[in-house]
Structure formats: structure tokens, C-alpha cells
Write a structure and sequence with these properties.
Number of helices: 2
Protein name: Cysteine-rich CWC family protein
Number of strands: 0
Distance between the termini: 22 Å
Largest sheet: none
Pfam family, one: Cys_rich_CWC
Shape: globular
Radius of gyration: 11 Å
Length: 80
């Protein structure tokens, strides 16, 4: 299985705009000041946990059709 794309949200496959992936300090990332939905974190596919960040929309739990891909388990990791 290929490694997760760290620049892509594992739920909706859109850009996650992660500051770290862009080579910027983590302190400047949008997620450092955002509330992240626990339900959204639980939908992150196991292979992406701790490796790929959610996008802001999915982090809020607002993404339509943001169920995990078939064959994946719920996550407990937080976005970076």
C-alpha cells in the first residue's frame, strides 16, 4: 500500500493546507487554533493516522461524504 499523501485530506482528498507540509512552522498552521471534530478524527483511515492532516472543512465535521474508504478502521489520532 502506498504511503498517504501528506498534502491531501484523508477524508475528502482535497488539499489540507498543512503548514508543516508546506515547510512552514507548525505554530502557523490553521489547525493549531481550530476545534477539530472528534467524529472527524474517528473517520481517518488507519493508514493515514498521524501522517496526513484533515482539511479545515473535514476537521469541523462538515464534509459531505467524508466516510473512510472501504476496508479502513476508525482513527484516534489528531491532525497535525
Amino acid at each position: 500500500m502506498p504511503a498517504p499523501d501528506t498534502a491531501t485530506c484523508p477524508l475528502c482528498r482535497q488539499a489540507n493546507t498543512c503548514a508543516v507540509v508546506a515547510g512552514l512552522p507548525a505554530a502557523g498552521c490553521w489547525c493549531m487554533s481550530a476545534e477539530v471534530s472528534r467524529a472527524a478524527l474517528q473517520r481517518v483511515p488507519a493508514p493515514s493516522r498521524g501522517l496526513a492532516c484533515l482539511c479545515a472543512r473535514c476537521a469541523q465535521g462538515d464534509a459531505a461524504g467524508s466516510a473512510p474508504l472501504a476496508g479502513t478502521a476508525p482513527a484516534s489520532a489528531s491532525p497535525s
